[in-house]
Amino acid sequence: xxxxxxxxxxxxxxKIGNEGLLESYSTPRQPDLYTFIRTNDYPAEVVVDxxxxxxxxxxxxxxxxxxxxxxxxxxxxxxxxFNREFYCIKDHDQEVSCAGLLFFGNMHIPIIALDIKxxxxxxxxxxxxxxxxxxxxxxxxxxxxxxxxRFIIISTRLLKAKEGFVETAKNTKIDLLRExxxxxxxxxKAEHSVSYYADRLFxxxxxxxxxxxxxxxxPLQIIHERIILEAKRLLMYTDMTAKExxxxxxxEDASHLSRLFKKHTTLSPSDFKKQIKKVY
Length: 280
What we know:
Elements: E1 2-7, E2 12-17, E3 34-38, E4 44-48, E5 51-55, E6 59-63, E7 69-73, E8 78-82, H1 84-87, H2 101-105, E9 111-113, H3 116-133, H4 140-161, H5 173-187, H6 194-200, H7 205-213, H8 219-237, H9 242-248, H10 254-265, H11 269-279
Antiparallel strand pairs: 1-2, 2-8, 3-6, 3-8, 4-5, 4-7, 6-9
Helix pairs in contact: 3-4, 5-8, 8-11, 9-10
């Protein structure tokens, strides 16, 4: 079973399915999508960053796009996958954003146990998800994003309520990346240089680059992707001009943003805006 929602104007992707969505991870690789795996009556076996995990029945596991993931076994799973353009393009409270507790703010790999009440609540939410996927109209994308936000809020509350939960940052590549993402989320509109974030993390830019290269990304790429996501959001949801948006995300010259935007999307901001108007 697999249901896929795509939004042409933003390249947003949401996938909802069962263990079939995980079959391509029989060998370790990085998910291109943020991923939630929810077990029901049966456990699941996975490997994350070379560490094996057994996900107990009635639990949720959250994965980022940077962890190396391998699916070993599991059945009767519920799997949600989405890209940055689907969820991260919208404004969210820091705790439930793509740099929040589930993805970049806390432990190495969150596994959340569900009691009967929470199972029932999430079963109802899942049915609404499936129903909304069949509803094709102009507000479908917004409804699906709202449902995903609700799922993430519920999961985050449960994670915070776990006994002994402490938000920590360990000296590992993944934890460094999480810290970096959280700093970028807070400062990307004003600070575009890797050196700024390196100083805040008491690292050299070269150290950051070397660590992130092993995770198939780079500090500058993360900064630029966050700027582009914000520019897309403003183009989609406001009437701001390209010049105003450029200033909003920290460029004094709109041409600098235009070049960066075109490099990442193949479209200029104005062409992207025109494309959105055609769709809607």
